[in-house]
Amino acid sequence: MKRWMLAAGFAAALAAGPATAATPDPQEAAAIATVQAFFDAMASQDADAVRAVTLPGGMYTSIRPGAAGATTVSRVTVEDFAQHLRPGLHEQMWSPRVSLRGALLATVTGPYEFQLDGKTTHCGIDVFDLAKVEGRWRVASVIWTAEPDSCAELKARK
After folding, report:
1. What angle do CA 34, 8, 50 make, to 5 degrees?
2. pTM listed for this prediction
3. Are 123 and 154 in contact (CB under 8 A)?
């Protein structure tokens, strides 16, 4: 399933709720769609599409468990990330939660599964910080956990 369909499906599911349910916030749906566009660009190895949904100079931070309780932190700029995209990447987030501060700031967070060449390598939690620039949401930074042994636990939350 295309990742953008996940965002559309999320918005449709909210809209299909009971008549008393609140109308989905279009800003939330747009923020989720931006995250999905990022995932789609990554999967298609489209560096220009990654740059189109991100702010220049953004930092991406990965946090991994290490031996004996240690933590490994890796950081990369959006520019380096976009230059080193490779075939076979697939990331899927479910149950995204959005926090908004008006039309200025959004945070999209949720569990995800990461696959390389069709094989799950790890799961974790993604946190996307977005800024509204020139009328559209753009990714300012991303931080995530990369936990090889967490998939069963996180998928049970679906």
Report:
1. 25
2. 0.84
3. yes
Domain residues for 137? 3-155
The confidence band for 5, taking pLDDT boundaries of 50, 70 and 90, is: very low
Three-class secondary structure of residue 106 per DSSP = strand
Strands 54-65 and 136-145: parallel
CATH (domain of 31):
3.10.450.50
54 and 79 in contact (C-beta within 8 Å)?
Answer: no
Place of tokens 């939660």: 97
CA distance 131 to 75: 20
Backbone angles phi and psi of 21, in degrees to 5: -70, 150
List pLDDT tens digits, range 39-98: 999 999 999 999 999 999 999 999 999 889 899 999 999 999 999 999 999 999 999 999
